Amino acid sequence: MRVIPVNTSDATLLVTKLPEVKVRDRQTGEVAVDPVTNQRLMTLELVFIAAGGSDMIKVTVPEQGIGDGLVMGAPVFLSGLVARPWESEFGGRARHGIAYRADAVMVNATAPAQG
After folding, report:
1. C-alpha dist (Å) from residue 51 to 8, 12, 33, 57, 75
2. What pLDDT score does 115 carry?
3. What is the CA radius of gyration of the chain?
4. Which of 31, 61, 77, 105 is 20 to 30 A from 10 via CA?
5. Is position 115 within any domain?
């Protein structure tokens, strides 16, 4: 699977949904874990503001990579952010998208305000 590094140096990232445990299988409640480290995975939602526009993104982060002090609206910094394009077929319907994964998310107290 192709992995694309994401440069966030010119972007502002704000928390719109606090981290929650990522569920691998909704029917069984099985929690998603990193296949290499066996750490539980968490997801959070952010607004990504850059180049005069904004997008909502959902990012997966290992539980140990969740920094202290995350609150709604907090500016954050993502370490090791990558994008992974994906596609699948379910019930005869093709689906595709981009999955975002980071090594860590931390409060960014020095984030500049973007207008």
Report:
1. 11, 10, 34, 16, 17
2. 46
3. 15
4. 61
5. no
Specify the higher pLDDT residue, 10 or 110.
Answer: 10
Say which CATH number the domain at 23 has. Answer: 2.40.50.390
From 61-70, 84-93, 103-112, the region with the lowest mean pLDDT = 103-112
Return the biggest CA–CA distance within the chain: 48
Give dist(CA 36, CA 38) in Å, integer: 6
40 against 92, higher pLDDT: 40
Beta bridge partners of 19: none
Q: Give residue-wise pLDDT tens across range 11-61.
A: 999 999 999 999 998 889 899 999 999 999 999 999 999 999 999 999 999
**Amino acid in position 100:** Y
The structural domain count of the chain equals 1
- Residue pointed to by tokens 């066996």: 38
